[in-house]
Every structure is written in C-alpha cells, then in structure tokens.
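A reminder from the course coordinator: this example appears on the midterm review sheet, so study it carefully.

Given structure:
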C-alpha cells in the first residue's frame, strides 16, 4: 500500500522522540504525529528554534502535547544527557532518528570524529543504545533510522573513519548513510536474537527540498531549477511516518518513496544496496561504534 500522512492511525497515548525536529522532515513528521494525538518530544540543538517549531505546530493543532529536549549529536556528552532526561517519561513508543548533517566542512565533533560519520551514525548509534532499555518497557516500541538514496554510493573507509587522510564531503555523506543501514541490519539481528520487544526499521525521504543541503551549492541550485520534481518536506516525511506508525511494517524493513526511482511520491518498501546487508561489515561497524562511543547497547552478537 502507498503510504502518506493520511494513512497515519491514531497515536493517542503514545510518545515519540524526533531528533532534528525543528525543521524539514523532522518538523513535518512531528506536526503530523502531534495532530494524531501523540506526545512529541522535539530533540534539537537550539531551544529557540524548537520553541518556534512548537508554536507552529500548536497553531495548527491547539493543545498539542509537545516538549523540548536539548540534543547535540556532535557531542556524546549531550547525547548522554538527553537520554538521561528522557528516561523520566512514562513511556517512549518510538525514537525517530532524523537529525543529520550533509556536506559540512571538516569541523570535527566534540570527540574528534569526522562530522558526518560522527553525527549521522555515531550520534544515532549512541542515542539508540542508551534508550533501548527505556524503549523495551513499551510493547511494540520502535527505533527508526533515517538513511538516504546516497547510501548506494557509500563505502566505509575503515582505515580512515575520522578523515585524517582525506575528506570528500559528498563521499563521507554517502558513507554515513551506508553506516545507517548497516546499523539497522545489525540492530535488527541482535534485537531479534535477544527476543527484545523493540523493532528496528529504517526509511529514506527520496530527494526532498529541505535545509539539509544548505552546505551544498550544487544541491541548492538543483532544488532551485528542479524543485518541482522533488518531494516537499511534508512528502519526504511520509516514509518516516510509515516507519514510525504503520502497523504493517516489517522488522528490519526499509521504506521510501515509490516514484521516479524512489525520489518522490507515497512511501512503501525501499531497495537497498547489497553492501547494506553485509553481515561481516555490520558486525565490524557495531564493534567500531562501541569502541568509539564507549557505549554498548548490551545486545549479544548471537
């Protein structure tokens, strides 16, 4: 079935954490979730921007149940603090890992990681790992990981993960998105092996006109001339909403737009490159991520 915001069922009584929720796909998904009765925690770097986003949501949905959670995925201390704060919530039904950066200059994260691998993958890995016990308290809870069509160009630079030898920002973005799908593969495998009640699923927005590409002049020019062909932010959020709310999703599944080579239109099952389901690479990435973050999700390998 082709999935859009119109297919989101009632989320009354449920609670979602959406990272990077103040703009773009995260904002659109948060607005729809709130309109369907969910409590939505907007996990963002800027309180000012988060409060502005909450005001916009409440203008459309008076009485929306919203909260701000300080989160900077470029700093693992911030990730730990955010996870600690959110444990006070009565329940968490889904962690929507939406926050990310695309094509930034080589400005390292607080812990010294290459920015795209550090924010897009390691930040997501760390927050997910820290919140798995909380998620497991709620039957049917989900972890949603946001990947990209760009993963098809990814190749993990195992010998230079922190970009001390070279930095091609477009390649590193693709690498981080491949890492997202390898993380999904291994997380899903370990959750099932452990008999966990938590489901892991991924999505991608196709090609959406959002702020994510602000560091890329080429992307901005493309959007200016060909934006009519792309998903809007609202359309780009449909796969996120499907992954987070569709009762029929498959554990370990991957969802994205169904039209124009998965670039736009309603959501459904998406295709992934064979290297995104490489068991050896997925296990290796898991071990590297534990070592770099110092955070172990506590799920056995078998």
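Designed residues:
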């Amino acid at each position: 079935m082709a999935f859009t915001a119109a297919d989101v069922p009632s989320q009354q009584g449920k609670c979602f954490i959406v990272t990077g929720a103040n703009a773009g796909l995260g904002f659109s998904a948060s607005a729809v979730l709130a309109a369907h009765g969910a409590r939505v925690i907007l996990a963002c770097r800027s309180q000012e921007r988060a409060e502005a986003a909450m005001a916009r949501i409440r203008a459309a949905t008076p009485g929306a149940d919203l909260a701000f959670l300080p989160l900077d995925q470029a700093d693992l201390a911030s990730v730990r603090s955010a996870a600690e704060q959110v444990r006070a919530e009565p329940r968490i039904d889904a962690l929507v890992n939406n926050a990310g950066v695309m094509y930034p200059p080589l400005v390292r994260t607080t812990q010294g990681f290459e920015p795209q691998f550090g924010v897009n993958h390691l930040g997501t890995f760390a927050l997910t790992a820290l919140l798995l016990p909380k998620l497991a308290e709620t039957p049917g809870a989900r972890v949603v990981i946001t990947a990209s069509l760009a993963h098809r160009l990814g190749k993990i630079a195992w010998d230079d993960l922190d970009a001390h030898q070279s930095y091609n920002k477009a390649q590193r973005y693709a690498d981080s998105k491949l890492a997202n799908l390898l993380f999904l593969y291994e997380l899903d495998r370990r959750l099932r092996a452990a008999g966990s009640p938590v489901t892991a699923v991924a999505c991608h927005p196709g090609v959406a006109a959002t702020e994510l590409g602000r560091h890329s002049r080429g992307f901005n020019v493309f959007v200016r001339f060909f934006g009519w062909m792309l998903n809007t932010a609202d359309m780009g959020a449909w796969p996120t909403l499907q992954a987070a709310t569709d009762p029929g999703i498959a554990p370990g599944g991957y969802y994205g737009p169904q039209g124009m080579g998965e670039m736009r239109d309603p959501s459904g099952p998406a295709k992934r490159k064979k290297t995104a389901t490489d068991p050896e690479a997925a296990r290796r990435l898991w071990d590297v991520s534990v070592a770099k973050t110092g955070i172990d999700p506590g799920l056995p390998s078998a």
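Strands lie at 15-19, 39-44, 65-70, 94-97, 142-146, 199-203, 254-259, 264-269. The CA atoms of residues 145 and 288 lie 18 Å apart.
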